[in-house]
Amino acid sequence: MRSGRALGAVLPLVLLAAGCGIRATEVVEAGEPAIVQVAPAGELGMVLYFVSSSSAARLMPVVRYAEPSGQGSGTGSYGDMPPVGASKALALLFAGPSRAERDAGLRSELPSNRVKMSVELSEQGVRVTLNTPVTRLSEPARQQLFCTAAQARTADRGATVTVTGTDGVIGPANCSV
After folding, report:
1. How far apart are the first and last CA of the chain?
2. Is residue 79 predicted with pLDDT exceeding 80?
3. To the nearest 10°, the Cα dihedral for 71, 123, 126, 169?
4. Percentage of the residues of the chain whose pLDDT score is greater than 90
5. Tell me, what's the pLDDT at 46?
6. Nearest to 145 by CA among 64, 45, 54, 50
7. What is the 3-state secondary structure (H, E, C) of the chain?
8. Residue 76 near residue 119 (C-beta atoms within 8 A)
């Protein structure tokens, strides 16, 4: 019994001493962090993009879920109507981050006032029309719009997005995230 206890007390010391021969290395740069595709589960999930408080230009995807509403809103020439997520995702984007998302350091650079919009999906991409000025939006705010609208159109965010406001047009552009 004593030899078992002695072995148990000595074994950690032997393992610690064996690890002492490992030399320290410098920090090795390995490139950009990994990018993971965030895909909402089911047809009621949608991805919104908010600005990270840690970096003014870094967008973070957030998955939100919506109640089924039957048909999509807006007008469109791609199929009958845009998917439920297209207009709903943009409406949620303008509503801003939830309390939990704000607590996690996310914010929006978009105006928080009520915005009326229409969304048109076509073979050329997504056209969003807003009843608010758009040409003076910051680059992060523009990317929030482009990425959320493109994600609602295609899972790979590859769709081209054009946003028309009361003061002009921004785009066509692609999501840069």
Report:
1. 62
2. no
3. -140
4. 29
5. 84
6. 50
7. CHHHHHHHHHHHHHHHHHHHHCCCCCCCCCCCCCCCCCCCCCCCEEEEEEEECCCCCCEEEEEEECCCCCCCCCCCCCCCCCCHHHHHHHHHHHHCCCHHHHHCCEECCCCCCCCCEEEEEECCEEEEEECCCCCCCCHHHHHHHHHHHHHHHCCCCCCCEEEEECCEEEEEECCCC
8. yes
Instruction: Give the model confidence (pLDDT) of 115-168 as tens digits.
Output: 888 888 878 888 999 999 999 999 999 999 999 888 876 655 678 889 999 999
CA distance 113 to 90: 13
Q: Tokens representing 26?
A: 């410098």
Query: Which amino acid appears at position 129 of this protein?
Result: T
Higher model confidence: residue 76 or residue 45? 45
CA distance 14 to 29: 33
Average pLDDT score over the chain: 75
Round to whole Å and give the CA distance between 94 and 177: 19
- Measure the CA–CA gap between 61 and 83, rounded to whole angstroms: 19
